[in-house]
Specification:
Elements lengths: L1 H17 L3 E5 L6 E3 L4 E2 L5 E2 L11 E3 L3 E2 L11 E11 L8 E7 L29 E6 L13 E6 L6 E4 L1 E3 L5 E3 L8 E8 L4 E8 L10 E4 L9 E9 L5 E12 L24 H31 L18 H7 L8 E4 L3 E7 L6 E7 L7 H12 L9 E7 L2 E7 L6 H6 L3 E3 L1
Parallel strand pairs: 21-24
Antiparallel strand pairs: 1-18, 2-5, 3-4, 4-18, 5-17, 6-17, 7-14, 7-18, 8-9, 8-17, 9-10, 10-11, 12-13, 14-15, 15-16, 19-20, 20-21, 21-23, 22-23, 23-24
C-alpha cells in the first residue's frame, strides 16, 4: 500500500510539473534553471550563456516541462515569451554566433554542436522532421550553408537552422519607420515571441529595452505548430561563443500559455557589467591636470609669499631688550603706517638715516619714523639705551620719543611729528628706531 501511495504522489508531482503554464524571472538564481556546459549565473543574477570561452555551448532550460497541448493530436495552445538579453563580444565588430530561444522535447539538446549549429543541431540532425524543435535565432554570424540573410538577423527555425523566415535585426517605431539594431552592440534589448493557437500565427518583435513593445512585429509567420511541438516540452536558451570570446546574457524572462504574458519588471533586472574601461570625459583628462597644476602653483606661490612676508617683517628680539620691551614697536605696523616707507612720505635725510611721516592706526597720532642706517657703528644695546634715555627728556624744542623697532640689521625710531618740518629735532630725539 505504501508503495502505491509513493507512486501516486510521484505521478501527481509529474503531472503538476507538466501542467505548469507560466513563470517569470526578473533575474536568476542558481536553482531556477537547468544549466549545462558553460552556462552559468553571475552573483548579481545574470544568466550568462557564453561565459567568456571559445567554441562552447551554453544551454539553459526551465527546470520543468510546459504543457502545450491537451493531447498529442490536438492543436498547440497560444503562448508568448518576452526575453531581455544582451550580446557582448570581446571586440566591437566580431562575436560568436548569438543566442537562440528554444522549445525542445528535452532539457538540453544532446549531440548538438557549437559554432554555426547554435548548439541546437548537428550535421545529421539538422532539418530532421523528428526533431520537434522550435527555435528563434538571434544570429550574429552569416552562415551561407544555412542561407542566412546577413550577420545581424532574427530568424524562425523549425527543426533546422535554415530559417523559415528571417529579417534584419531592428524594429518599427511609432509611425512605421524601421530602425536598425545591432545585436552585438552590448546593449540590453527585448524580444517578444507570440504564437496564436487559433490563428496559427507566430509574431516576433524586437526593440531596445527602453522602448515599449512596437505595434508592428519584426517577423510574422502563419504556420500550424501542431506537427512541431509535442504535448509537453521544455523551454530555454542555447548559445555559442564561436572563435571570438563573447558573453551572451539573459537579464529577464517570462513565459505564458493561454493567458496574458506576465510583464517583466525592467527596473528590477540585474545590471550588465561595465564594458572595458569607463570612458573619461575630456574635461577630466585634459582640464583636471591643468586645474590641479594651477591649484598647486597657487599654493606654492602663497607659501612663498607668506614666508617672504614673514621674513620681511621678522624681528630680532634679544634678552637684553626685555628692559625696553614697553618701548618696542612692531615693524609691520610701522611699515603700514609709513605706506611702505614710500618716497611720498619722506620728510628728510640726516643723522644716519631717513625720516618718514606716518599715522599710528591705534591712536591716530601723527608720528615721524627714522630708519637708521645699517652702517651705524655704535653697539645696538648701547644705542637703544641711549635713545630710550633721550626719550625721557621733555622740552619744547625736542620731540617726544615713543619707542623703537629692530628688524634684522635695520633700526627704526618713532617720535612725534613736527609740522614745521625741522629735521634737526628728529636727529636729536626720535620716537622709533628700526633696523
Amino acid at each position: 500500500m505504501s508503495f502505491k501511495i509513493l507512486v501516486l504522489v510521484y505521478l501527481l508531482a509529474v503531472l503538476a510539473y507538466a501542467q505548469e503554464t507560466n513563470f517569470v524571472y526578473n533575474g536568476f538564481q542558481t536553482d531556477d534553471l537547468s544549466l549545462d556546459e558553460v552556462a552559468g549565473i553571475t552573483p548579481n543574477g545574470l544568466l550568462n550563456l557564453g561565459y567568456d570561452t571559445k567554441q562552447q555551448k551554453g544551454p539553459a532550460f526551465h527546470s520543468y516541462p510546459v504543457q502545450f497541448k491537451n493531447s498529442p493530436n490536438s492543436s498547440v495552445f497560444s503562448f508568448s515569451t518576452p526575453v531581455v538579453f544582451a550580446i557582448r563580444p570581446q571586440f566591437k565588430t566580431l562575436s560568436g554566433h548569438g543566442i537562440a530561444i528554444v522549445v525542445a522535447p528535452q532539457r538540453g539538446l544532446h549531440g548538438s554542436l557549437p559554432s554555426q549549429y547554435l548548439g541546437m543541431f548537428n550535421q545529421t540532425s539538422n532539418s530532421n522532421p523528428t526533431n520537434h524543435v522550435f527555435g528563434l535565432e538571434l544570429d550574429t554570424i552569416l552562415s551561407s550553408e544555412f542561407q542566412d540573410i546577413n550577420d545581424n538577423h532574427v530568424g524562425i527555425d523549425l527543426n533546422g537552422l535554415t530559417s523559415v523566415k528571417s529579417a534584419p535585426a531592428g524594429y518599427y517605431a511609432d509611425g512605421g519607420k524601421f530602425k536598425n539594431l545591432t545585436l552585438i552592440s552590448g546593449k540590453a534589448m527585448q524580444v517578444w515571441v507570440d504564437y496564436d493557437g487559433t490563428e496559427k500565427q507566430i509574431n516576433v518583435t524586437l526593440a531596445p529595452i527602453n522602448v515599449r513593445k512596437p505595434k508592428t512585429p519584426l517577423l510574422s509567420l502563419t504556420r500550424d505548430f501542431a506537427s512541431i511541438i509535442n504535448e509537453n516540452m521544455y523551454v530555454g536558451f542555447s548559445s555559442l561563443t564561436g572563435w571570438v570570446v563573447t558573453s551572451n546574457y539573459v537579464l529577464g524572462w517570462s513565459f505564458e500559455v493561454n493567458g496574458k504574458t506576465p510583464a517583466l519588471a525592467l527596473s528590477q533586472l540585474p545590471k550588465l557589467p561595465q564594458i572595458g574601461k569607463k570612458q573619461t570625459s575630456k574635461v577630466l583628462t585634459i582640464g583636471l591636470p591643468w586645474v590641479v597644476l594651477f591649484v598647486i602653483s597657487m599654493l606654492i606661490l602663497s607659501v612663498v609669499y607668506v614666508m617672504r612676508r614673514k621674513r620681511k617683517f621678522a624681528e630680532v628680539l634679544e634678552d637684553w631688550e626685555r628692559d625696553y620691551g614697553q618701548h618696542r614697536f612692531n615693524s609691520k605696523d610701522l611699515y603700514i603706517t609709513t605706506k611702505g616707507f614710500r618716497s611720498q612720505e619722506l620728510l628728510g635725510t640726516g643723522g644716519f638715516g631717513r625720516v618718514y611721516r606716518g599715522i599710528l592706526r591705534t591712536s591716530k597720532i601723527v608720528i615721524g619714523v627714522k630708519r637708521v642706517s645699517h652702517e651705524l657703528r655704535q653697539g645696538m644695546r648701547e644705542l637703544v639705551a641711549e635713545i630710550i634715555s633721550i626719550g625721557w627728556l621733555r622740552h619744547c624744542k625736542i620731540v617726544s620719543l615713543h619707542g623703537y623697532c629692530r628688524r634684522k640689521a635695520e633700526l627704526l625710531l618713532v617720535c612725534d611729528y613736527m609740522p614745521n618740518g625741522s629735521l634737526d629735532k628728529y636727529f636729536y630725539n626720535l620716537l622709533v628706531v628700526c633696523l
